[in-house]
């Protein structure tokens, strides 16, 4: 196993860590003096980034925790549609949220008038608070997903004792809320990471964060790579330290409970409680999902034009988008699924290697923290540097052979020919930690005795995977694939910097169109993206046979007995 782990360490360093560390090394070499005048700008970026994170967490975490408690344990009517809506929310990219809420904030909310004869203005259309609102609403499905996973790991024995002593309210107060609070910390960490490292919403709302500053400086070429990266480096280092500490504390606190974990204890509340909870959760769903969707339909149908909204214009815009960008959308979906499969497979193997090795587990933990908090544009810059070095190595190799081929495989795949590989690689680097977060706990939950028995019976590595790991963690692998695929559909911050000429993902076209005046076309692009992702989410649910909505399997007695019987035979 030592050779397996050493090889895995090298692969992860080359494939994932190197693209992130290369721009840091180049920036350190390119900056030879301290720039005192930059202190004020860095302080402003830090204040904006921190304020955006705090505000987004205050919006997403409380709402997500309450929604998870209501949907998971109060069992309100319409739980199936609510869960389907939440699953769709995971797939909707951030640029779509930005466009939809811009319509609501700029077109539907009334302006403020400063005085007679003065120009009306909308302070809620751009700025820190609108950006935090959009980020918070976009993160609610993720918070619900994370907290639901935590609630499904609650101790059944404690629930039964609390129910017998004081009723369902005691179960909520003494068992579920403490468990949800731990999950809320993990969810808040994810909201902070997504808010601080993405640029689509801050770019649309004109908020300067560290990630936005890196992207802006690189695009404007005002200070080069060194200036672009060095601005974000102090905040990145602090984020790694703080994020690592929080992740470690969350892992310790969020471990499996000492008692039995199984189907949750049925809780029966008064009809008034159920109906109030039902009204609140459905009202929130209509506000968070229905209102922006309606805004996109209104905008795509010409609601902002003088002639007003018409069905004819809506259908015409949708037809135009499907004709011009339908193939691109399907290609982007396929690439996103491929990235999800690649990230989940790599995380599956890495988590398996980490289960029996403390040093590899620490290495994987540090790698995931560094990748998770890295700003998206920094990853994109690192990918450009790595691709440039690979192209140079390939040219040197052929020169040493005395050959001058007309086709260079690496150069054509990663640099000067239409190819989705550079963007897919950057997306893999960014969202590999998400797959690890989903798969590592599932691998750790496998009893050590079962793995030891596999080694004793001599079934080998392939037998261990076939008889133990795949049956017990296959659903977690599917969840990891879907989570990364959902994120890959909306990745802009890194892939925009490395996409090859002649190839552009659908979300990059949408991001570019956001900065032009074709409002109805932009809305139609968003609606087509939502329709395609809804179909993909429905197909994933159908293919999994509802396993995505069921609690994770934590009992391993039956699979263990099946494995032992098979091994003995």
TrEMBL record:
GO biological process: transmembrane transport
Family matches, as CDD domains: TM_PBP2
Keyword Protein biosynthesis appears in the UniProt entry: no
Transmembrane stretches, start-end: 51-72, 84-104, 124-147, 225-247, 275-298, 328-353, 359-383, 428-446, 467-489, 522-543
Domain ABC transmembrane type-1 per the UniProt entry, residue ranges: 46-242, 329-540
Keywords: Cell inner membrane, Cell membrane, Membrane, Transmembrane, Transmembrane helix, Transport
Annotated localization: Cell inner membrane
One cellular component term from this protein's GO annotations in UniProt: plasma membrane
Membrane topology type: Multi-pass membrane protein
InterPro entries to which the protein is assigned, alphabetical: MetI-like (IPR000515), MetI-like_sf (IPR035906)
Domain of life: Bacteria
Principal subcellular localisation of the protein: membrane
Keyword Metal-binding applies: no
PANTHER family associated with the record: FE(3+)-TRANSPORT SYSTEM PERMEASE PROTEIN FBPB 2 (PTHR43357:SF3), INNER MEMBRANE ABC TRANSPORTER PERMEASE PROTEIN YDCV (PTHR43357)
Name assigned to this protein: Ferric iron ABC transporter, permease protein
Species name: Fimbriiglobus ruber
